[in-house]
Amino acid sequence: MNPVPELAPHLKQLRLSGILDSLEARNRQAIEGKLAYTEFLSLLIQDEVARRDQKKFDLRLRRAAFRAGKTLEGFDFSRLPNLNRALVHDLATGRYLAEKAPVLIVGPCGTGKSHLAQALGHCAVRQGADVLFTTQAQLCASLTAARAVGTAERKLATLARVPLLIIDDFGLKPMRPPADEDFHDLIAERYEQAATIVTSNLDFTEWDQAFPANRLLAAATLDRLRHNAYCLTLDGASYRAPKLAPAASKSAPAKQVKSTEF
């Protein structure tokens, strides 16, 4: 007798329909291995927990809005011999999340700042944290749009609650009012309440250039970002260096270009 047709509606009612995916295989395993009923039940429950964990992980990964599958395993440390690897691996444990501390990553274009930030974000997702990846430009645009429709406070509150907010390309474009004020308000709300990762092409001493219209606002914002922050400097060759064309063979005859008169 096949019990699945009778079990299916009850499992759905209990929101355990995922068990149906492995029920047949586990039932066969139990028969062949002469497992006790409790062992069989334990296997089914473990399968359900694993499915739910994977579903949560996939959902967090989609919500994070990473640009690509950038992970720490795929990061090329050999290109950055001066990078503090010990600190990177320490950050990968997620300790800064519990500390609600900022992580600031600077370096020239193409050195892997975005990759490293997203890799730390992936680690956080694996550890069960909600993450949001965005650029400074996208972040300011979303706050400006919310302000235009009267939902700025709600948007700010939502962003302030994200356990890990990753802001890429800080200072790439100077912020003008009211974007600079919105950015300050967000950092102030997150200060010592949630972890924030910021990447920038600017040196730390140049970060005030992102606030050309209000130096006082710059000082207040950066003071909060730098307090108890972990700092990483990436200094090496760009990953985006153009590939050189293969050298032409000296023995190959030169191609004749035909001219055409018009």
Task: Tell me briefly what this model is.
The chain is of the alpha/beta class. It has helices spanning 4-13, 19-33, 37-64, 85-92, 95-99, 113-126, 136-148, 152-161, 179-190, 215-226; strands at 103-106, 131-135, 164-170, 195-200, 230-233.
Explained architecture:
This protein is α/β, with parallel strands linked by helices. The protein folds into two domains: 57 residues, no CATH class; 162 residues, 3-Layer(aba) Sandwich (Rossmann fold), CATH 3.40.50.300. The chain has ten helices and five strands. Strands 2-3-4-1-5 form a five-stranded parallel β-sheet. The C terminus is likely disordered.
Largest sheet: 5 strands, parallel
What is the third-level CATH name, the topology of the largest domain?
A: Rossmann fold
Q: What is the assigned CATH homologous superfamily of the largest domain?
A: P-loop containing nucleotide triphosphate hydrolases
Number of domains: 2
Structural class: alpha/beta
CATH architect. name of the largest domain: 3-Layer(aba) Sandwich
Global shape? elongated
Q: Compute the number of helices.
A: 10
Q: Radius of gyration from the CA trace? A: 26 Å
Which strand order spans the largest sheet, edge to edge or round the barrel?
A: 2-3-4-1-5
Kindly estimate the percentage of residues that lie in beta strands according to DSSP. 5-15%
Oligomeric state, counting identical vs distinct chains: single chain
Low-confidence segments, given as residue ranges, are: 249-262
